Amino acid sequence: MVSRAEEIRTLVRRLEDAINTRQLDLLDELLAADFVRRSEATPQLPVADREQFRDVLRQDAAAFPDNTQTFTRVLVDGDWAAVWATYEGTQTGQLGPFPPSGKRATFDFAGVLRVADGRIAEWWVTWDNLTVLTQLGHLPAG
């Protein structure tokens, strides 16, 4: 018998795979209809449902077509999962006000996800924008 923790871990890994393989239609199975993503790193990109999340992922793929997100740790506690992950990608498209740099960024990010009724209902995610923009050459190195 599969434990609740293992079910949630599998759900989170399926999200990782759907994002990395660009199979955004799978988000209907993985995310609640009223899924919410919160990120202080991107306050200009509100996400209050699955379609808005798809839009964010499409914008990200336009800026970083080769991006991958590797969830290096997935920890589960009750209906919550925490992820520590690495994002890698080459900026060949526009990133907000920043033109394509052709440079590769690699940075860690963290997230906390809440699961309800077998689907991810909320995702809080954070990363250091200064690290990213410096790697891409949009800010001077410290």
From TrEMBL:
Domain of life, per lineage: Bacteria
Any single GO BP term: polyketide metabolic process
A Pfam family the protein falls into: SnoaL
Name this protein carries in UniProt: Ester cyclase
Protein's organism: Geodermatophilus sabuli
Taxonomic lineage from the root: Bacteria, Bacillati, Actinomycetota, Actinomycetes, Geodermatophilales
